[in-house]
């Protein structure tokens, strides 16, 4: 099933974006690995997924340290904002409220039985 509005983001890329967010937040692949309970090698593989998808580097690697490229800074800024908004909405819903920022989503397509 293809997502009409999010067709450019595969599940693999969405997972890699979570890894990128942790790596960019810490500016450390090792700290991201520790936070996500995976190996540093897995962090590197996930970052490569995004870099291959975008065809641009997101980090400059300096030994065990990393520095965001301009593209990495741009992506991190947007992801941090999106993840923060999503977290706020989830918290509000859990508390029984309705988010002030919620808007009507695009209509859901009915599944065809085949």
| CATH domain topology of the domain at 11-89 | Arc Repressor Mutant, subunit A
| Helix segment tally | 4
DSSP strand tally: 2
Strand content: 5-15%
First and last CA, distance: 12 Å
As laid out across the biggest beta sheet, the strand order is 1-2
**What is the CATH homologous superfamily assignment of the domain at 11-89?**
Winged helix-like DNA-binding domain superfamily/Winged helix DNA-binding domain
Report the CATH architecture of the domain at 11-89: Orthogonal Bundle
Mean pLDDT: 83
* Inertia-based shape: globular
Assigned CATH class of the domain at 11-89:
Mainly Alpha
Q: How would you sum up the major sheet?
A: 2 strands, antiparallel
Helix-strand string: HHHEEH
Low-confidence stretches: 107-114
Radius of gyration computed on alpha carbons: 17 Å
Share of helical residues: 55-70%
Structural class: mainly alpha
Report a brief summary of the structure.
Helix content is 56%, strand content 7%. It contains 4 helices and 2 strands. Helix 1 packs across helix 2, helix 1 (11-26) packs across helix 4 and helix 2 packs across helix 3.
Please give a handful of descriptors for the protein shown.
two-stranded antiparallel ribbon, mainly alpha, 4 helices, 114 residues, 56% helix, Arc Repressor Mutant, subunit A
Write the layout of secondary structure elements.
Elements: H1 11-26, H2 29-36, H3 40-54, E1 59-62, E2 65-68, H4 70-94
Antiparallel strand pairs: 1-2
Helix pairs in contact: 1-2, 1-3, 1-4, 2-3
């Amino acid at each position: 099933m293809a997502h009409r509005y999010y067709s450019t983001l595969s599940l693999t890329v969405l997972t890699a974006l979570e890894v990128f967010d942790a790596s960019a937040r810490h500016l450390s692949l090792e700290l991201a690995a520790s936070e996500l309970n995976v190996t540093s090698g897995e962090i590197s593989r996930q970052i490569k997924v995004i870099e291959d998808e975008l065809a641009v580097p997101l980090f400059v690697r300096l030994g065990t340290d990393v520095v965001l490229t301009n593209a990495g800074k741009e992506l991190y800024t947007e992801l941090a904002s999106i993840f923060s908004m999503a977290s706020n909405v989830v918290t509000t819903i859990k508390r029984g409220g309705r988010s002030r920022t919620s808007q009507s989503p695009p209509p859901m397509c009915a599944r065809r039985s085949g």
